[in-house]
Amino acid sequence: MDKKSFFLLIVILLTISACAPAPTPAPLPTTTNIPNPTATPIPTPLPAPVGPLEFPANPEKGFKWPYFLYVPSKVSGNHLLVMPNNTGRFNDFSVIKQRTLEYMQGKLSWADKLEVPLLVPVFPRFDDDSDGTIASQYLGRGSIEKSWQNKYPDIVHEDLQLIAMIDDARERLASLNVKVDEKIFIVGYSASAMFTSRFSILHPERIQASVFGGHGWAIVPIDKWEKITLPYPYGTSDIEELTGKPFNLEEFKKVAIFAYMGEADDNGWALPWYIGDGQNIISYYSSFKNTFGSSAKELSDSANQIYQELNCSATFTVYANQNHQSAFTHDSEILKFFQEHK
């Protein structure tokens, strides 16, 4: 079969499987029968790259929004690369989806160079989300807080929706003889960096390596520091109350983390954040700034101190003379970091 015919066949098969009624899924493979991430993987060559393909929302399987998937022609890595989307606010979801696809197309070379599949979810970010409560593209507290689930049912637990997308993609990839581990690479910048940082705290058992930049404050893996309690999304003091499971520090210590900011990054919109009904966020933020600072370097240094004292596998970098826009361009460092943690 020539390359063109093969590519068309793959598109048809994957598209049919995406549109067909979802059957009762077979049990997903466990880490015991997936190749060891530290072992040398067996390359999986395809005659041509596949995608990006759009797979529609599938509430029965746990995700209420679509996602895009791309498979490079050669897959030698064991980890799916996941990039949470960051589109800006638009009430027209078709605009969000188009901007997500354009964002993904600009990063296909990352998947090619790392030789891993790439998944990008298409989460919304509507204008009525501007209060930061739900903060849907940066995994705000409202997405996981029970009191908001009736008001925003389709954005409930985007963290779990993303996991459902990942596991759906793993099943589809297996049909191409492309097997990836449960643990992923995840990367984001700005709003999607906050999503990445917070997702890594909520689900460290699913993360091989995590990279986030331009994030403002990186959520820290601790309940309290000095005299200030740290609720989500500042810290982990109420993770169990919000999610029903305690924060797993030991698993989090295994996650390789690279966090970076520009020293001149002044995106003040990253703080303060909603921390629950009835909480005085202005008063809390004043205490937070007194403890941790508010400039990019102060925030990075403060978070880094906590991560290092807890023996986390984290590197925090502040780039001199760079602002929020200029610090976005650090592709080579990011790819090198993922290569080092395959």
Quick structural gist:
This protein is of the alpha/beta class and 342 residues long.
Protein described:
This protein has one domain: Rossmann fold (3-Layer(aba) Sandwich). Helix content is 33%, strand content 15%. The protein contains ten helices and twelve strands. The strands form three sheets. The protein has an eight-stranded mixed β-sheet with strand order 2-3-6-5-7-8-11-12, with helices on both faces. A two-stranded antiparallel ribbon has the order 1-4. The radius of gyration is 20 Å and the shape is globular. It starts with a helix and ends with a helix. The relative contact order is 0.12.
Query: Helical region count?
Result: 10
- CATH H level: which superfamily? Alpha/Beta hydrolase fold, catalytic domain
Proportion of strand residues: 5-15%
Q: What's the CATH architecture name?
A: 3-Layer(aba) Sandwich
Mean pLDDT: 85
Which structural class do the helices and strands define? alpha/beta
Distance between the termini: 32 Å
CATH class call:
Alpha Beta
What oligomeric state best describes the polypeptide chains here? single chain
Strand arrangement, major sheet = 2-3-6-5-7-8-11-12
The parts where pLDDT drops under 50 for at least 5 residues are 1-9, 15-42
Which structural traits does this protein have?
342 residues, alpha/beta, Rossmann fold, eight-stranded mixed beta sheet, two-stranded antiparallel sheet, 10 helices, 15% strand, globular
